[in-house]
Amino acid sequence: AIYVMTHDSIGLGEDGPTHQPVEHLAALRVIPNLLVFRPGDAVETAEAWQCALDSSESPSVLALSRQGLDQFRHGDMTENQTARGAYIARNADGDRQITLIASGSEVGIALAAQAGLAAEGVAAAVVSAPCLELFWQQDAGWRESVIGDTPRIVIEAALRQPWDRLLRDGDEFVGMDDFGASAPAPALYEHFGITADAVMEKARACLS
């Protein structure tokens, strides 16, 4: 079975605080044998759909945003990157100093933070993680090659719990810890501190 669910975060806008799904991703991800895909652009959406079609033993959920997203995948697309759960969307310019991990609509925020950090001389890698369940099915060596051993910052406009397996002492999370609010999506992201500037500030703290 394939379930397509939309309006996946505070990005849905002016529906009121209790109508914004801050907890839904965490709840879905604890269901055994369910694949939860949160694609960040059109390519990842197509890849997630293919993964869902190919999955004969697990049902799938595609959690899609309401707001428009920039395309960040270009060039060679012969391999379905989403099939491995997470992958390096953009390498660090030089030796990696920090890793920014995001899903869905927050991949764009991670990429903006990467550019800002690069201007300050900090080499950050951006990892897109559209499906945590598939990522944890990969072998440990491959997972480590993607995530690395540098400080990690996870960015997702939802609750932190699904990421605790990935976050170590000293790592950071940029996301939600309460109900949302009723306002346009850009205002909400600013209000709750889910911005490139907030990610950069946490990166500086991690590296200080």
Architecture blueprint of SSEs:
Layout: E1 2-5, H1 24-29, E2 35-37, H2 42-54, E3 60-63, E4 87-90, E5 98-102, H3 107-119, E6 124-128, H4 132-136, H5 140-147, E7 152-155, E8 172-174, H6 185-191, H7 196-207
Parallel strand pairs: 1-3, 2-3, 5-6, 5-7, 7-8
Antiparallel strand pairs: 4-6
Short description, anyone?
This protein has 208 residues and is an alpha/beta fold. It has helices spanning 24-29, 42-54, 107-119, 132-136, 140-147, 185-191, 196-207; strands spanning 2-5, 35-37, 60-63, 87-90, 98-102, 124-128, 152-155, 172-174. It is globular and about 45 Å long.
Outline the structure in words.
The chain has 208 residues and is an alpha/beta fold. Helices cover 31% and strands 15% of the residues. The protein has seven helices and eight strands, in the order βαβαβββαβααββαα. The chain has helices spanning 24-29, 42-54, 107-119, 132-136, 140-147, 185-191, 196-207, and strands spanning 2-5, 35-37, 60-63, 87-90, 98-102, 124-128, 152-155, 172-174. The strands form two sheets. A five-stranded mixed β-sheet has the order 4-6-5-7-8, covered by helices on one side.
